[in-house]
C-alpha cells in the first residue's frame, strides 16, 4: 500500500513541477523513478501485474493531462516497467543493490526524455534543445541521487 501512495505522490510531484515549467523545460521523471523503485523491490521473478497497471493508469492520466495522445505514455511507462523488471532479474540476487538500480533508472529516464522530446512543440525547442535536456537531467540527477541515497539506507542491507 505504501508503494502505491509513493507512486501517487510521485505522479503529483511530477505534475506540479511540470506545471511550474510549462512550455519552458521538461519536469524530471519522478513518476518513472518511483515505478522503477517499486519494480526493483520485488523479490520473486513473477509478472508484476500491479506495477503494469500502475504504469498504465499513471501514463494514461499523464496523457490526458498533458499531451492529448491517450495511451502513449501509458505504453511507454508499461514498457519501462517491463524492461526494468527484466533487467533487475538478470542481475544475480546478491548483487541487486543501489548501483544497478541507478544504471537501470538512468537508462530508462534517458529513453523517456527522448520520447517526450519527440512530442513536444518544436517551436519551444528551437535553438535550446541542449538547455532543455540539461535542465531536465540536472533535476533528474537530484531526484535520482536522493532516491539512491534513500534506497542504499533502506534496502541494501536486506537480501533481495
Description:
There is one protein chain. Helices cover 74% and strands 0% of the residues. The protein has 160 residues and is mostly helical. It has one domain (1-157). Helix 3 packs antiparallel against helix 4 (72-90). Keywords: Membrane, Transmembrane, Transmembrane helix. This is Rod shape-determining protein MreD. The chain crosses the membrane at residues 16-37, 72-89, 101-119, 125-150.
Summarize the structure.
The chain is mostly helical and 160 residues long. The protein contains seven helices and no strands.
In N-to-C order, the SSE pattern is HHHHHHH
Distance between the termini: 19 Å
Q: How much strand?
A: under 5%
* Uncertain ranges: none
Protein name: Rod shape-determining protein MreD
Transmembrane segments: 16-37, 72-89, 101-119, 125-150
Keywords: Membrane, Transmembrane, Transmembrane helix
What descriptors fit this protein?
160 residues; mainly alpha; 74% helix; 0% strand; membrane; Rod shape-determining protein MreD; transmembrane helix
Amino acid at each position: 500500500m505504501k508503494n502505491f501512495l509513493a507512486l501517487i505522490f510521485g505522479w503529483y510531484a511530477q505534475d506540479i513541477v511540470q506545471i511550474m515549467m510549462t512550455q519552458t523545460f521538461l519536469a524530471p521523471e519522478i513518476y518513472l523513478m518511483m515505478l522503477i523503485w517499486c519494480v526493483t523491490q520485488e523479490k520473486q521473478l513473477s509478472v508484476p501485474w500491479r506495477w503494469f497497471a500502475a504504469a498504465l493508469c499513471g501514463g494514461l492520466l499523464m496523457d490526458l493531462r498533458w499531451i492529448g495522445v491517450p495511451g502513449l505514455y501509458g505504453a511507454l511507462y508499461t514498457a519501462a516497467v517491463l524492461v526494468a523488471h527484466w533487467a533487475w532479474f538478470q542481475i544475480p540476487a546478491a548483487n541487486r543493490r543501489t548501483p544497478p538500480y541507478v544504471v537501470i533508472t538512468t537508462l530508462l529516464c534517458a529513453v523517456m526524455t527522448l520520447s517526450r522530446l519527440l512530442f513536444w512543440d518544436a517551436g519551444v525547442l528551437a535553438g535550446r534543445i541542449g538547455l532543455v535536456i540539461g535542465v531536465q537531467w540536472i533535476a533528474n540527477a537530484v531526484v535520482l541521487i536522493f532516491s539512491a541515497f534513500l534506497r542504499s539506507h533502506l534496502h541494501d542491507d536486506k537480501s533481495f
